[in-house]
Amino acid sequence: xxxxxxxxxxxxxxxxxxxxxxxxxxxxxxxxxxxxxxxxxxxxxxxxxxxxxxxxxxxxxxxxxxxxxxxxxxxxxxxxxxxxxxxxxxxxxxxxxxxxxxxxxxxxxxxxxxxxxxxxxxxxxxxxxxxxxxxxxxxxxxxxxxxxxxxxxxxxxxxxxxxxxxxxxxxxxxxxxxxxxxxxxxxxxxxxxxxxxxxxxxxxxxxxxxxxxxxxxxxxxxxxxxx
Amino acid sequence: xxxxxxxxxxxxxxxxxxxxxxxxxxxxxxxxxxxxxxxxxxxxxxxxxxxxxxxxxxxxxxxxxxxxxxxxxxxxxxxxxxxxxxxxxxxxxxxxxxxxxxxxxxxxxxxxxxxxxxxxxxxxxxxxxxxxxxxxxxxxxxxxxxxxxxxxxxxxxxxxxxxxxxxxxxxxxxxxxxxxxxxxxxxxxxxxxxxxxxxxxxxxxxxxxxxxxxxxxxxxxxxxxxx
DNA sequence: GTTAGTATGATAGTCACACTATCATTAAAG
DNA sequence: CTTTAATGATAGTGTGACTATCATACTAAC
Lengths: 227, 227
Known about the structure:
By secondary structure, chain A is mostly helical. Chain A has helices spanning about 25-40, 45-55, 60, 70-90, 95-110, 125-140, 145-150, 155-170, 175-195, 210-225.
């Protein structure tokens, strides 16, 4: 099926040297880096290995991304923009704030699936990268500099948006943003724990997400907001 | 004041090649690695730099720790054991489960300070390492293997203990362990966000911890359990 | 007191990662 | 038809992450 309107996901321009969306090689770098990072983990991932994978060279990849850390931030940024787009799209024309919040939670946990138009991006693999690796994007000594450059705009923007739903439901709730950052982080580590350190949680995510993480988060949030 | 009884913090033996507690050099490695990692960050930290710092050699450090990742897990493990000891000590003889839970939260957030007997360990620096770096200890492709070796025992044990307090307060609460892992993780990233990405939270931790993180966490937990 | 063992230091070497630089080739744009 | 931009090919540098070897100093045992 042909797309009539093309969705454009915007990522901070300082995250790349050449825009990877504009060329075949660039899209190849992005799509295969997702596959490879998901497969071998970010620490074991190198531009040399990626180059081999796509039959290109290290030097060519360096023409797009300064280093693998910038690439990771690029991928994670892309993910947050995509998430925000999904939230906008799926909550559009919905009045009920609780409904909107529920939709947002499902999107965060990837419980509901949205047919995307990004042929070169494996969204499932990217989601797993975000779960496993995204905190490494900001847990560095460069956070403050990177934040000044606006690298975390997507994450902050999404949190702000969902925190807005929270405030619509409970205008007196004191911690809408803290709650949302807690929930977003929890959506990742609860999934991680359920798969790798199951004694840290009652939630069990068996294959593809039966939705126990989102159930748990939903329970937390609504109990907090409505008593 | 002299200690009459000496506290022994136990760390999984597989985390080191030679027990660093047993020698001067070993304790030096541990104490200076804490200072150095806190200062330059885990990614920039190398055994060579540490060796220089303590006037020793790379080779000597490798006789104690297989690699810097194992050293990180060692430090984090030590921290969790120490935290659990503090919880045990400070909640001893207290009957009221709510009080115990409050104490545990304060300990997690380092709001209450405990005079320790570990001269060679800078607990404040170690706490900052745990906030900034501890998730890197398990967010790797080796989690499952490392978990099998018991490297995360301390973390799991502490969560289980505090989850026990939760169950004492609210026996019907469905997610005691998930809640506790969420809270422990939140105690780290809320502090991190308040310092580096403040738009992600209402909490602000000005110097030494005025305790806003613990206030927030306390609010969450008790609203959930009694709300 | 000699010997044997253990901890550390000193040095050097290997391999892989993280780049940087240069030049050749090809394809598209004017 | 020429210029320019994108890629490939190759090589080189510095550093990190180790491993190996040998010398030395101290300690503990016989």
